[in-house]
Amino acid sequence: MYRPGELRNNGVVKYVSEHQEPAAQPAAVAGVPPVTTHDDQRSTRNRVARSILDHGPSTAAEVAQRLKITQAAVRRHLDTLVAEGVVEPREQRVYGARGRGRPAKVFVLTDCGRDAFDQAYDQLATDALRWIAQSAGGGQMGEAAVAAFARARLAAQAVGYRAAIEAAAPESRTEALAKALTADGYAATARSAPNPQLGEQLCQHHCPVAHVAEQFPQLCEAETEVFSHLLGTHVQRLATIAHGDGVCTTFIPKKKTNATNAFTTASASTSGRKPE
User: Fold this and answer.
1) Domain count, the chain
2) Which residues have CB under 8 Å from 245's CB, separation 6+?
3) pLDDT tens digits, residue range 117-126?
4) Where a domain ends, among 57, 88, 116?
5) Eight-class DSSP state of 238
């Protein structure tokens, strides 16, 4: 199945530029065909998709010529990319008189395939937040401006979560929030804390803004405040992906505390960084 992170330049799998020499392969042993690993196949497939991104609609022959690999290999990778929804075949446009025979088939990236590549959205968001901070005067005033933006963004996002949470039984509200977050791409789950008598843990296995939150922890802090407000209790952020943890983990007490001003009194000291 297609996994977007595989094609992103800043993802786990790094593409190899078509202008970059491929890594040296071990010398072949006489009579023994070279071993092609799954990672090799994935890397080449990423190069095929990247070549189409860089050069626009392309035939299999054009991709093969650019990457210096056989057309048969390119066609196999294109078949896989089509099945995964990364590229789609189209009839090549012909301008002027058309010759005999069917026009060549070209392959173009789909919206899904284009979004899988790094399009500098993280950098754009980081630059925008930095501009907000500087426009507000920098220092503490700049940090406050970024925090205000983060709160406004999360408050708008939370509008869709509130209905799901209010429709759930009190003991199922953390799970309802996890499902709502998952629908927004956070891959969230709810589970018991190590000591179930104390409460639950809300775990987010993916963070769409992790790279930006590394530089602007106000995003994590605002999210923690929103969780507190939605669940009506003080919550504590235990770990974040943005600061090197594998999962964003938030502790939800089982026995709810006084939720007065919960939106502004959530623990900011641990919401944006890994606790000491």
Assistant:
1) 2
2) 239, 274
3) 755 678 889 9
4) 116
5) E
